[in-house]
Amino acid sequence: MKPIQVGLLGIGTVGSGTFEVLRRNQEEIRRRAGRGIEVSMVADLDTERARRIAGSGVEVVADARAVIANPAIDIVVELIGGYGIARVLVLEAIAAGKHVVTANKALLAVHGTEIFAAAHARGVVVAFEAAVAGGIPIIKALREGLSANRIGWIAGIINGTTNFILSEMRSKGLDFGVVLKEAQRLGYAEADPTFDIEGIDAAHKATIMSAIAFGTPVQFSSAYTEGITGLQAADIRYAEQLGYRIKLLGITKRRDDAGGIELRVHPTLIPATRLIANVEGAMNAVVVQGDAVGTTLYYGKGAGAEPTASAVIADLVDVTRLITADPEHRVPHLAFRPDALSATPVLPIDQVITAFYLRLQVVDEAGVLANITRMLADHQISIDAVLQRESAEGERQTDLIILTHDTLEGRMNAALAQMQALPTVLAPIVRIRKEELS
């Protein structure tokens, strides 16, 4: 049978990895897909570099539209990234009747509803396993492996840069700024790391997983996003003393009581006994809770040339298998049939229910703790644990650490405003959310 012809838009790290894995495992891939898969055309502005990677026998062009216009190309792989030209090219490829494979989480999180609707109308597939958690097959697990389940929640370490930084802060006792520079030197962080350290990259991925888990359109604009730039070594140390570790988590939860979905990314205290709390370095992990299967964990490399290429090629194999299938009987892009997607809203952050870690720098005198616990009680917030640092000789101030039970974020906001106004509270109160993930 004639091999499937693939056109590649962009041949950077992932594109070169895709070539290498296809070359190395071509026989295994052919046996799985039922026919060969060949990259026969590449578009990249740096045509000289592209030719060195692609080798002889592959047509290299600077114009991506030439790939889309080629009638011999069956599948277009978009590896350009970003929201701009990538969106235009993906929609043009769909309009031309091409199947699309993409690793572009930003594109799908922001424009996924438009893209999936266009693909459904044209009867083509948009596959995106590589868009979330690199080589971990979490999209397939959510869309297919867990399709019997009513998903309750998902929590994931889905950005390797921030996990590397937090792991180094914990193991070496260093502050954020010092570790960020080291991460940049080692190549774990970009020269401009904003998307990673501010939680935006993780929010893109959490948005996609949320839509698949709960059968809603993608709703990135409603996601709450908070990065790790404000974390201090002291908070990581105190969390450790209390039996917790701090990770940047992407969290989405079904909230039947509130008629909505929680969708949020922020630093989170997790019990150190949880498997996900022990995911270190640049690794990724996702925990999914389903009503039938219980809690499942997916762990592996979330980035890199070959791990991401693994997911890209898995999508190529899937699309190859489906090319002759009736479009109405393919796995839906967001797991649920397009006409069965719900309009369930994402809840505003003040309606989120979670527990909290609070660190207050206070005057070391009688009555301070009593005042603070009274204010929490006034807002119906119960305390789980309290840790007070012993003041050094001659000091008149100390750190007061409080762990709370679950409460509405809105109540905590009101209590924090009241506590912050106390003359005995000497610095801005540190607040970090806490999840038991059980």
Written account of the structure:
- Helix content is 37%, strand content 24%.
- The protein is α/β, with parallel strands linked by helices.
- It folds into three domains: 4-137 and 305-340, NAD(P)-binding Rossmann-like Domain (Rossmann fold); 138-300, Dihydrodipicolinate Reductase, domain 2; 353-434, ACT domain (Alpha-Beta Plaits, 2-Layer Sandwich).
- Strands 7, 8, 9, 10, 11, 12, 13, 14, 15, 16 and 17 form an eleven-stranded mixed β-sheet that branches.
- Helix 6 (105-122) packs parallel to helix 11, helix 8 crosses helix 9 and helix 14 runs antiparallel to helix 15 (409-420).
- The longest helix is centred in the N-terminal third of the chain and has 18 residues, at 105-122.
Low-confidence stretches: none
Shape: elongated
CATH homology-level superfamily of the largest domain: NAD(P)-binding Rossmann-like Domain
- Structural class, from helix and strand content? alpha/beta
The major beta sheet can be summarized as: 11 strands, mixed
Would you identify the CATH architecture of the largest domain?
3-Layer(aba) Sandwich
Instruction: Using the coordinates above, name the CATH class of the largest domain.
Output: Alpha Beta
**What is the count of distinct domains?**
3
Number of helical elements: 15
What is the overall pLDDT average? 95
According to DSSP, the number of beta strands is: 17
CATH topology of the largest domain: Rossmann fold
What distance lies between the first and last C-alpha atoms, to the nearest angstrom?
50 Å
Helix content: 25-40%
Q: What value does the Rg take, in angstroms?
A: 24 Å
